[in-house]
Specification:
By secondary structure, the protein is α+β, with helices and mostly antiparallel strands. The protein folds into two domains: 104 residues, Nucleoside Triphosphate Pyrophosphohydrolase (Alpha-Beta Complex); 125 residues, Nucleoside Triphosphate Pyrophosphohydrolase, CATH 3.90.79. The strands form three sheets. Strands 1, 2, 3, 4, 5, 6 and 7 form a seven-stranded mixed β-sheet that branches. A hairpin with a 2-residue loop joins strand 5 and strand 6. It is globular and about 60 Å long.
């Protein structure tokens, strides 16, 4: 039985009263003992440096708005928590709201002014767009396509570490697509650049919206063809073949990287296949 969706996106009229709001600043989301969703009416009484407000959807039927701040400020009885910290938490539904809100916040911050003439852009009522009246240009939230791939060799998987990873964690290879490049071409190029390997039998496995800040991760599985591992300087700290029976510390369970790994492990062992996180 499919679980009812608690969260749905929508462009809501910010002139309406009521509803709940999440607050995003340069330190993450505002959080208190009751969570991250606050009464809009209560927030209006705080002296917050609000840059813009956006109606972003419904959670359990309740309208949800986003307040984008110029910077995070102290709020009595509350603190700030990053999106990555929420991703590691237990509430997948709330994380889904915040992942979307973070992307809208990034878009709103980056498009306050027209990229063509520099004049101030205005929100378009009823549409997720910023409009420059002088240039007649509209700016929509940006989605950057990228690939993420698990490379396998029988009972071995290739996993790597970036210097930016949490200590001890190994993950799959990933990278952004270049203009004019197919997703499969991106897989081949990124694998060659990052570890100097050739791959074959590239198969698409699923996608995940990745809000750091605005990626659409296209997940693939590929088989090793040839080459010896040579990690890319400054990008790959370490890369190794790992036995499926002796795996290192893996990425967060809500990530598509973890899904690709667990999907292959399930297929090799005959276990039930995992579900791709929403």
């Amino acid at each position: 039985m499919t679980r009812p969706r608690r969260w749905s996106t929508a462009v809501l009229d910010t002139q309406k009263v009521g509803g709940m709001a999440v607050v995003h600043g340069d330190q993450g989301f505002l959080l208190d003992g009751n969570g991250v969703m606050f009464s809009r009416e209560w927030l209006k009484h705080l002296d917050l440096p609000v840059v813009s407000e956006h109606g972003i959807g419904h959670f359990d039927g309740e309208p949800v708005y986003l307040l984008v701040l110029e910077k995070s400020v102290p709020v009595e009885g509350a603190g700030w928590q990053t999106l990555r910290q929420f991703m590691m938490g237990d509430d997948a539904d709330v994380y889904q709201v915040l992942a979307y809100a973070a992307q809208i916040s990034t878009w709103a911050r980056e498009h306050r002014f027209c990229g063509n003439c520099g004049r101030r852009a205005e929100q378009v009522p009823g549409e997720r767009a910023m409009h420059c009246a002088h240039c007649e240009l509209r700016y929509y939230p940006r989605i950057s396509p990228s690939m993420i791939v698990l490379i396998t060799r029988g009972d071995e998987v290739l996993l790597a570490r970036s210097p930016r990873f949490v200590t001890g964690v190994y993950s799959t290879l990933a990278g952004f697509a270049e203009p004019g490049e197919s997703a499969e071409d991106c897989v081949r190029r990124e694998v060659m650049e990052e570890v100097q390997l050739k791959v074959r039998n590239i198969q698409y496995k699923g996608s995940q919206c990745w809000p750091f800040p605005h990626s659409m991760m296209l997940g693939f599985h590929a088989e090793y063809e040839s080459g010896e591992i040579v990690p890319q300087a400054d990008e790959i700290e370490d890369a190794q073949w790992f036995s499926i029976h002796d795996m290192p510390t893996l990425p967060a369970s809500r990530s598509i990287a973890r899904y690709l790994i667990e999907l292959y492990l399930a297929q090799r062992s005959g276990a039930a296949e995992p579900v791709l996180p929403g």
